[in-house]
Amino acid sequence: MKILVGYVPTPEGEAALEAAAAEAVLRGASVLLLNTSRGDTYIASRYANQEELDTAEARLRERGVQVTIQQTDGTGDVAAELLRAAEHEDVKLLVLGLRRRSPVGKLILGSTAQRVLLESPVPVLAVKVPSSRYD
């Protein structure tokens, strides 16, 4: 079994990584860590550098989880990249972190998380950052 985690080096990405690790241990699964960008690869803070990827990989391996890392420079459509990987990599679960949004932000359609939740061919585990990390 394989679990796909959409990883970005943010508190939301770290929460997703932690949830994916816990699910992988529970299910005896491997993890496919996907990091992509909106097309501004070299300046995007969400595009993980090698040190961040190495740290994420080490955290998974410390828990006995096999991990494969894919990093794409993206088409600008992060949801499409996640959905494509979910379909083509034979994953059974997709994990992604959700960020807090203002009431107005919640009204805006087209967010990556919303699209993944609605279009994913596999179950999606959406996780929030523990509230203490925002304090």
Describe the structure.
It contains five helices and five strands; from the N terminus they run βαβαβαβααβ. The protein is an alpha/beta fold and 135 residues long. Strand 2 (30-35), helix 2 (50-62) and strand 3 form a beta-alpha-beta unit. Helix 3 (78-88) packs parallel to helix 5 (112-119). The termini are far apart. The model has no long low-confidence stretch (mean pLDDT 86).
Q: Would you kindly provide a brief summary of this structure?
A:
Helix content is 40%, strand content 20%. It has five helices and five strands; from the N terminus they run E-H-E-H-E-H-E-H-H-E. Strand 2 (30-35), helix 2 (50-62) and strand 3 form a beta-alpha-beta unit.
Q: What pattern of helices and strands is seen along the backbone?
A: EHEHEHEHHE
Mean of pLDDT: 86
Mass-distribution shape: globular
Count of alpha/pi helices: 5
Salient structural properties:
135 residues, alpha/beta, five-stranded parallel sheet, 5 helices, globular
Q: How is the secondary structure organized here?
A:
Layout: E1 2-6, H1 11-27, E2 30-35, H2 50-62, E3 67-71, H3 78-88, E4 93-98, H4 103-107, H5 112-119, E5 124-128
Parallel strand pairs: 1-2, 1-4, 2-3, 4-5
Helix pairs in contact: 3-5
